[in-house]
Amino acid sequence: MSTVKKTKGTGKKPVKAPKASVAAAVKADKATSGGIAGENQGVENNGQSSGVRRRDFIHIATVSFAGVGAAAVAMPLVSQMSASADVLALASIEVDVAAIQPGQSIKTSWRKQPVFIRNLTAAEVEEANKVDVGGLRDPQTLAERTKPGKENWLITLGVCTHLGCVPLGAAAGEVKGEYGGYFCPCHGSHYDTAARIRKGPAPTNLVVPEFAFISDTVVKIG
Amino acid sequence: MSFPWAQEYKPQGAVSKWVDERLPLPRLVYNAVGAGYPVPRNLNYFWNFGVLAGVALVIQIITGVILAMHYYASVDGAFNSVEHIMRDVNSGWFIRYAHMNGASFFFIVVYIHIFRGLFYGSYKAPREMIWLLGVTIFLLMMATAFMGYVLPWGQMSFWGAQVITGFFSAIPVVGEPLRQWLLGGFAPDQAALNRFFSLHYLMPFVIAGVIILHIWALHIPGSSNPTGVSVKGEQDTVPFHPYYTAKDGFGLGIFLIFFVAVTFFAPNMLGHPDNYIPANPLSTPAHIVPEWYFLPFYAILKAFTVDFSIPFTGIVIIEAKLMGVLAMFGSILLLFFLPWLDTSPVRSGHYRPLFRKFFWFGLIPCIVLLTYCGGKPPYTQWVILSQIAAAYYFIHFLIILPIVSRIERPLPLPNSITEAVTGKPLETAAA
User: Fold this and answer.
1) Domain presence at residue B7
2) What's the mean pLDDT when you consider all of chain B?
3) Domain A87-221 is found in CATH 3.30.1330.10
4) Residue from B155, B156, B180, B186 to probe the interface with A (highest A Cβ count within 10 Å)
5) Confidence (pTM)
6) Which residue, of A168, A208, B293, B411, has the fewest CB within 10 Å?
7) How far apart are CA B358 and CA A130, in angstroms?
8) What is the DSSP string of B272-285?
């Protein structure tokens, strides 16, 4: 506000100028309104800040009010895009895994996304544990990705962390990739037997959803 | 704007006069694409493709609005409604094949249009704004085409939606929430399909709006021409109508012959057979490929397989996934800076011997190679070829072009368009 000069309530446009050109502004001001009272006197003069007219307040208040209103209206317009209540309400699922033999895996669906439930063989568990975790792109041990005492049950989303394809390797006869776990055919990501990313463009391991064994053979996902 | 010698609109008859005084729309058309728009006399057939792109958009809008009368945007009904259009709706097969191939032909035409701009330097001053608007139209077209491809809800539709929205999840921190916001769920589903349909219907009209700005910006300096020499006098131009309405009309005839030939005799040639399998969220097709017109960009995306990290420390600066996505978008956004990367004052490639060599033996083979690799599975040899081609693409625009512009010695330019055409100087060439 310090750069705005008072124009003595004549209703004329206040002359705005940066501090560096005060002299020029003073000159211009004199020319238009016949002199000014002084640079910083406006505030004490009549309770208004210098050069600010009552109409300016109305302008700012009006535009601000309209702006806040527009922003308020924009909020539902934006939030309607987010997942709706029925999508979010998809319940957790319970899966009976009794029939899955070691080396087998099944695909199921949770929140419209595929889930792989894999019963690892002893050899696969051993292979996963042999890996030097420090050298991985997304360092995690098999134990961190499974439940204690149930290290052979590898439960992950069947969604490649690259761009969301379903990796191969869960169904019988599918390619398991160079590391014996999963292979994403879209852009060539290879996952190992703990579904950790080992090669290819995917940034992280296959996601392990929240899950718990509610009995020896039934697992609850979500 | 126009050249001072542009013909003026003179309304014939009382009704025309009455309209012209109240809403000078006929005047606007006359000055935009009629006898009131003087155009360089030496345009070749590459200058047809702007008009052809406009026709392609009109074909898409007409067929699209009709398809929307029969289409049903639901995950259970979309695929069947497309089959219903193909089998049951009277002439539905024709409308749908025309729309499907119309998209491909729209891109063919636009790619030739862009090629014209790149070779003849149409992006240079004073036509930068036309170029910027053109790149914007191209981006809008890509978004529209992508969303349209999702609508039949076949396997490629679904997995294309999964992969393309997956691009956004590469963005750090906000990526995954952003993706879920765009999809309205955790994976492509009813919410995504419905909003894609809504936006696919809206976007062509947005494109039409930007096209109006594109043409408005074009009419300020007027059309460029194959010599790249600016218009200097009346002899350099002819009125758009009848000269170029006739030439564009001829080009349009040829275009339509190709278009109907493919639509009637090979309607699925440019599509992917997997999209005739209903979407299955639990099974990814063995090999996801986008429509052919996205292949070069898809190849760039796939070319990044290794994280960008500080050597020997293992500290990752940018993940491979984000790099691929950034490079893919960057390859298009780069074009926005083209007018300032190519600083040579000579527009046309005809008079730029060094530029021409890099253009024909560098850029064009590089884009052909990217298109080819984009359609291939991610095996090592294709990835390496994509990496080489993607590297060249960026080097061409960011390094080669600025250097060539500085060191190149252009060939002598003709003094005027008229001289280039008739061999006689502008002043004496009069009639």
Assistant:
1) no
2) 92
3) no
4) B186
5) 0.84
6) B411
7) 51
8) -GGGGSB--TT---
CA distance A24 to chain B (A): 37
Q: Is residue B162 part of a domain?
A: yes
CATH number at residue B343: 1.20.810.10
Q: Which residues, listed in sequence order, are joined to residue A154 by a DSSP beta bridge?
A: A118
Geometric angle at alpha carbon B104, from B99 and B107, rounded to 5°: 120
Minimum distance, in Å, between the CA of residue B375 and any CA atom of chain A: 11
Quick check: helix, strand or coil at residue A197? strand
* Mean pLDDT calculated for residue range B406-431: 83
- The answer to whether residue B378 neighbours chain A at the CB level (below 8 Å) is yes
Distance of CA A115 to the CA centre of its chain: 22
Per-residue tokens: A175:
């390619």
Cα distances from A215 to residues A91, A150, B40, in angstroms, run 19, 12, 82
Nearest chain A residue (CA) to B324: A201
Give the mutation candidate from A86, A160, A162 for the B interface (greatest B CB count, under 10 A).
A162
Give domain status of residue B147, yes or no: yes
B301 C-beta neighbours (distance < 10 Å), count:
29
CA nearest to A165, candidates B304, B158, B149 = B158
Under a CB-based contact definition with an 8 Å cutoff, are residues B101 and B270 in contact?
yes
> What are the pLDDT digits (tens) for A98-108?
888 888 888 88
Q: How far apart are CA B57 and CA B102, in angstroms?
A: 8
Do the chains contact at A164 and B184, CB–CB below 8 Å? no
Size of the A and B interface in Cβ pairs below 8 Å: 103
Q: What's the one-letter identity of residue B59?
A: I
ipTM higher than threshold 0.90? no
C-beta atoms surrounding B21 within 10 Å: 9
Contact B169 A113 (CB under 8 A): no
Structural domain count, chain B: 1
Give, to the nearest 10 degrees, the angle between helix B190-218 and helix B175-183: 100
φ/ψ (deg, to 5) at B316: -85, 125
Instruction: Give the pLDDT of residue B312.
Output: 66
Catalytic amino acids of B? 219, 223, 247-248, 291
A77 has a chain B CB within 8 A of its CB:
no
| Structural domain boundaries in chain A | 19-79, 87-221
Task: Kindly state whether A188 is in contact with chain B, defined as any CB-CB distance less than 8 angstroms.
Answer: yes
Alpha-carbon radius of gyration of chain A: 34
- What's the domain range around B406? 38-268+285-422
The Cα–Cα gap between A208 and A153 comes to 11
| Residues B424 and B360: beta-carbon distance below 8 Å | no
A71 by Cβ neighbours in 10 Å (0-12 / 13-18 / 19+) ranks as exposed
Q: Is the distance from CB of A160 to CB of A113 less than 8 angstroms?
A: no
